[in-house]
């Protein structure tokens, strides 16, 4: 691909992120009357009512470009978190913030450190820029923060802590992050990815904005509206971090990558703590139900899982189980691209979707899943 030198050599090693299959395509290809998608960690509920109203109010202005600086959104987020406007970065999802951060920070010869298996964008964006990803194996399906620190070198610029980890769903507790930040070298920027923050009510789960950024640590905390807020289709996320990092992220971000509707919906979603609590409780019950279903069919999800998804080992090649479930009308996520070719990830759905999954697993033979 790069023999003539026209394309950058770094691209030859790049494996693009593979999104989950769309329901309509599976229905068309396999001729199925019903297909459910439990693959992409979307919330099972739509946008908040206030977000829908805000989008309707702004629909007549879609002939105009969005606010390239996301002024209202950044201001609302700064107020909610008690930080300065200049400390709020925005992007097209949390993934967009990570992409822009990578562009602003990484170059050939630089290193990033992350656990593995984990969210593949950390690795993809580093490779894309000619940087080297250092993948630290998980310990019992959890990030080992001590092992991350041991992997840091003078060339390390970014260390990613995915908490809870996607795809395993496990978390690092408060004292582990405290100990990490006591030891991490000053030349490293730590990225704490808390995309599933609002789902979690564990007392030992740390709020990295309150406990580490506000304590003066060199950290960028990343969150999103794609999960519990039900705005995955609009792509809006943000980071809270040092003003100089936020400024650098803004320099490489495309001016209009967060649409008018996305900004309006995100602002309108903030402050409805009652609905957040309702969805958090529903997710907790749904996650317990999903775990029971998986165990009934011979799987043992690691835990405690705290997000809106579960991880399951499925033999040497999870693609076999993925394809068997696909033929039954259930889309799950095979995890080869995440560094776990023998595992799948299943998103918490509605009770009806869980029942559909339960029956589909019952039709999949024991030979297929062992």
User: Average pLDDT value?
Assistant: 93
Q: How many domains comprise the coordinates? A: 2
Shape: globular
Annotation field: number of helices? 14
The profile of the biggest β sheet is: 7 strands, mixed
Helix-strand string: HEHHEHEHEHEHEHEEHHHEHEEEHH
Strand fraction: 15-25%
Class derived from helix and strand content: alpha/beta
CATH class of the largest domain: Alpha Beta
Account of the 3D structure:
With 370 residues, this protein is of the alpha/beta class. It has two domains: 9-46 and 273-369, Alpha-Beta Complex (Aspartate Aminotransferase, domain 1); 49-269, Aspartate Aminotransferase, domain 2. Helix content is 39%, strand content 16%. The protein is built from 14 helices and twelve strands. The chain has helices spanning 23-30, 49-58, 71-81, 93-105, 121-128, 145-151, 174-183, 208-213, 243-252, 260-269, 273-296, 318-327, 351-363, 366-369, and strands at residues 36-37, 88-91, 111-116, 132-137, 156-162, 189-193, 219-224, 237-240, 309-313, 330-331, 333-335, 340-347. Strands 2-8-7-6-5-3-4 form a seven-stranded mixed β-sheet, sandwiched between helices. A three-stranded antiparallel β-sheet has the order 9-12-11, with helices on one face. A hairpin with a 4-residue loop joins strand 11 (333-335) and strand 12 (340-347). Helix 3 (71-81) packs parallel to helix 10 (260-269) and helix 11 runs parallel beside helix 13. The protein is globular and about 55 Å long. The two termini are 38 Å apart. The relative contact order is 0.17. The mean pLDDT is 93.
């Amino acid at each position: 691909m790069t023999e003539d030198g026209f394309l950058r050599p770094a691209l030859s090693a790049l494996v693009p992120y593979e999104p989950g299959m769309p329901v309509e395509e599976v229905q068309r290809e396999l001729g199925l009357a019903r297909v459910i998608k439990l693959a992409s960690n979307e919330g099972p509920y739509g946008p908040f009512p206030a977000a829908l109203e805000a989008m309707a109010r702004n629909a007549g202005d879609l002939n105009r470009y969005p606010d390239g600086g996301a002024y209202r959104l950044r201001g609302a987020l700064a107020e909610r978190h008690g930080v300065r406007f200049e400390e709020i970065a925005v992007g097209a999802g949390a993934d967009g913030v990570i992409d822009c951060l990578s562009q602003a920070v990484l170059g050939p010869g630089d290193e990033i450190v992350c656990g593995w298996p984990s969210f593949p964008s950390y690795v993809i964006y580093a490779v894309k820029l000619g940087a080297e990803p250092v993948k630290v194996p998980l310990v019992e399906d959890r990030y080992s923060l001590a092992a991350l620190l041991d992997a840091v070198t003078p060339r390390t610029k970014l260390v990613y802590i995915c908490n809870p980890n996607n795809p395993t769903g496990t978390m690092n507790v408060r004292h582990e992050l405290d100990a990490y930040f006591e030891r991490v070298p000053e030349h490293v920027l730590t990225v704490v990815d808390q995309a599933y923050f609002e789902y979690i009510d564990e007392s030992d789960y740390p709020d990295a904005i309150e406990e580490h950024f506000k304590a003066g640590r060199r950290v960028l905390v990343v969150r999103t509206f794609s999960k519990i807020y039900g705005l995955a289709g609009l792509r809006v996320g943000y980071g809270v971090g040092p003003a100089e990092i936020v400024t650098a992220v803004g320099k490489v971000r495309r001016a209009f990558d967060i649409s008018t509707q996305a900004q309006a919906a995100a602002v309108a979603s903030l402050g409805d703590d009652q609905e957040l609590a309702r969805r958090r409780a529903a997710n907790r019950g749904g996650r317990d139900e999903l775990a029971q279903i998986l165990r009934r069919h011979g799987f043992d999800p690691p835990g405690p899982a705290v997000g809106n998804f579960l991880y399951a080992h499925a033999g040497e090649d999870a693609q076999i189980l993925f394809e068997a479930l696909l033929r039954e009308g259930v889309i799950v996520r095979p995890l080869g691209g995440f560094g776990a070719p023998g595992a799948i990830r299943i998103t918490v759905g509605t009770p009806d979707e869980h029942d559909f999954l339960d029956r589909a697993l019952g039709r999949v033979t024991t030979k297929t899943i062992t």
